[in-house]
Each structure stands twice: as structure tokens, then as C-alpha cells.
Specification:
- The protein has helices at about 15-30, 35-40, 50-55, 60-65.
- By secondary structure, the chain is mostly helical.
- Helix 2 (about 35-40) runs antiparallel to helix 4 (about 60-65).
- The longest helix is centred in the first third of the chain and has 14 residues, at about 15-30.
- The protein is globular.
- About 15% of the residues are buried.
Length: about 80
């Protein structure tokens, strides 16, 4: 069985989280429903550190879900946020 490798966050991160945050902001500004649906769906898969980083920058999962007009495409989140549906 393969050994689990810890995610690195910060200077040596494999994923550019700042670039990803900028893409989320751009999708919010342009009201890009396709990408907003994707970002709302994968938000639960992000590491806790990244979620906290996004929260400090003003991006939350609830905000992304509320911005999506067709919520049937993100029905996997129905059990986490029943008030949004």
C-alpha cells in the first residue's frame, strides 16, 4: 500500500492557491455559472488550510452555492446545506 504524502501548503505548494482564488473571484465577477458550480462542488474536497485561507479572503462555500442559479447540478451538497436548496 502506498504511503500517504502530506499536502504542502505555502511556499512549496504543488498547487497555486492564489491563482485558484483569483479564478474563483473572476468567475464571481463574470457570473460564470459553469465554473461557479464546479467551485461550489469541489469546495468540500479542499484541505482545511485552504478552506480557512479562502474564508479569510471572503470566499465561503455558502456564498458559492448561493451564487449558482441552477442548484440541481450541485445536489451532492444538499445534505450539508439544506437551507440553500
Amino acid at each position: 500500500m502506498a504511503k500517504k504524502v502530506a499536502l504542502k501548503f505555502g511556499k512549496h505548494s504543488r498547487i497555486d492557491w492564489q491563482r485558484n482564488l483569483n479564478q474563483i473571484r473572476e468567475a464571481i465577477e463574470t457570473d460564470d455559472q459553469f465554473h461557479l458550480g464546479i467551485y461550489a462542488t469541489i469546495f468540500t474536497k479542499l484541505p482545511k488550510v485552504v478552506k480557512e485561507y479562502y474564508r479569510r479572503e471572503g470566499i465561503t462555500q455558502e456564498q458559492l452555492v448561493c451564487l449558482v442559479k441552477d442548484k440541481s447540478k450541485i445536489s451532492a451538497l444538499r445534505h450539508l446545506m439544506p437551507h440553500a436548496f
